[in-house]
């Protein structure tokens, strides 16, 4: 088992076995009470933000949601700014807020959320539909609910006088669901703020296990891709396996099955998401679609494959690359292939600092009477903005709202989780900044 997985699983078992509730100090109890008192307004804020479509490509909608949260942060004494992206990137930009006292105490924090959703303007599903203690809507869990939790936690701290002499930055990105290219530009401001911070807390959706225990994220796999281009000798099908060779389709099948049998290891996945084969192949890279034509009595000369690759850390990536290249090089007669790789989101490695943050978060939760918090296996989460800052500072993710159906027309949020998550986050922030 890779060391990252072993560390996170070990910590989860230790937290469950050894965490003891100590209760909240009077100042912390006031913070928790402030969160509880504001719960109706938190739900109202979520509804107001959810009723604005903010699909990544709806630039006006992303900015409008940003303005909703900007007003909240302004009211809490943060200095806010909207960071535009280059016009040719086709992204709305990011909301950035900073607050720093004259004498900073404790850790310098970076809080992360995002304004965009996967739901573009023509997407099915309601913007907001209240259903008792839950609500359905586009992005209510991923992650407008998380943004609301940030505001609720910061408001409680401000009302309790606990924001003075703290250094806290907030970044709500406008393109988390489909980050703009080049990444060096779209994530430049985020990375620069991380360099001036000590800890990053991200408010992507919270996860619970089968027993109901809350889980947080100490590691995420990197996201990358592979391009596999296969060539064969075109000819009459009667010559296949003989003088005509095996053709591009059999070669592609050999390679993909070789990956399946010889490359897999815990935490590593690779998925051929698009494949086109025949004698006339055209791939539209920008839209990940294409056309292919051929005849049953003609040996195919071309196969084009584009795939996803996810790994826990760079050594695992390098092992996968090397083995995949070896398999590609073992060509069948009359065929050849070339493979290349592209990195996208860096890995969020499971580090001692991340595990310490989880321990502190779990203790805050336990002291507030909300139970211990365990660790999500890194392979169970997709990509997120925290991966751009995790190589620089201690990081913890999954502090957001609970729900289900993310990225689907049935996406929903458990409205009672707004209060629980905001209390956990506020107490953790309070303790980190003392």
Task: Characterize the structure shown.
It holds the Pfam family M20_dimer. GO terms for molecular function: hydrolase activity; metal ion binding. The chain folds into two domains: 303 residues, Aminopeptidase (3-Layer(aba) Sandwich), CATH 3.40.630.10; 124 residues, Alpha-Beta Plaits (2-Layer Sandwich). The strands form five sheets. It has a six-stranded mixed sheet, sandwiched between helices. A four-stranded antiparallel sheet has the order 4-5-19-18. It has a four-stranded antiparallel sheet with strand order 11-14-10-15, covered by helices on one side. Helix 2 crosses helix 5. A hairpin with a 2-residue loop joins strand 4 and strand 5. Helix content is 35%, strand content 24%. The model has no long low-confidence stretch (mean pLDDT 94). It has eleven helices and 19 strands. The chain is elongated and about 85 Å long. It is an alpha+beta fold.
């Amino acid at each position: 088992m890779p060391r990252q997985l072993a560390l996170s699983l070990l910590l989860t078992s230790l937290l469950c076995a050894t965490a003891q509730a100590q209760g909240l100090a009077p100042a912390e109890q006031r913070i928790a009470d402030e969160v509880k008192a504001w719960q109706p307004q938190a739900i109202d804020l979520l509804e107001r933000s959810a009723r604005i479509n903010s699909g990544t490509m709806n630039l006006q909608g992303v900015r409008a949601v940003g303005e909703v949260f900007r007003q909240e942060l302004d009211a809490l004494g943060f200095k806010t700014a909207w960071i535009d992206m280059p016009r040719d990137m086709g992204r709305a930009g990011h909301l950035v807020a900073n607050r720093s006292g004259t004498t900073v105490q404790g850790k310098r924090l970076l809080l992360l959320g995002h304004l965009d959703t996967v739901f573009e303007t023509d997407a099915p599903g309601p913007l907001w539909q209240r259903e008792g203690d839950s609500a359905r809507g586009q992005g209510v869990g991923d992650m407008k609910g998380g943004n609301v939790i940030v505001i609720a936690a910061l408001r409680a701290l401000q009302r309790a006088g606990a924001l003075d002499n703290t250094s806290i930055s907030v970044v709500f990105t406008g393109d988390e669901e489909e980050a703009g290219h080049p990444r060096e530009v779209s994530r430049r401001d985020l990375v620069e703020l991380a360099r001036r911070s000590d800890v990053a807390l991200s408010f992507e959706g919270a996860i619970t296990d089968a027993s109901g225990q809350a889980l947080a994220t100490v590691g995420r796999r990197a996201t990358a891709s592979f391009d596999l281009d296969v060539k064969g000798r075109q000819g009459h099908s009667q010559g296949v396996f003989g003088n005509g060779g095996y053709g591009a389709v059999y070669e592609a099948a050999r390679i993909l099955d070789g990956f399946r049998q010889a490359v897999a290891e815990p935490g590593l996945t690779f998925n051929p998401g698009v494949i086109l084969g025949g004698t006339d192949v055209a791939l539209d890279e920008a839209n990940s679609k294409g056309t292919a034509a051929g005849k049953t009595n003609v040996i195919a000369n071309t196969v084009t494959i584009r795939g996803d690759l996810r790994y826990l850390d760079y050594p695992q990536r390098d092992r996968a690359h090397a083995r995949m290249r070896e398999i590609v090089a073992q060509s069948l007669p009359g065929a050849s292939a070339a493979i290349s790789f592209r990195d996208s989101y860096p890995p969020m490695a499971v580090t001692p600092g991340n595990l310490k943050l989880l321990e502190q978060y779990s203790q805050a939760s336990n002291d507030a009477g909300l139970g211990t918090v365990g660790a999500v296996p890194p392979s169970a989460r997709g990509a997120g903005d925290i991966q751009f800052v995790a190589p620089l500072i201690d990081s913890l993710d999954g502090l957001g709202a609970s729900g289900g159906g993310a990225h689907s027309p049935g996406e929903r949020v458990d409205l009672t989780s707004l209060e629980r998550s905001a209390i956990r986050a506020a107490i953790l922030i309070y303790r980190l900044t003392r």
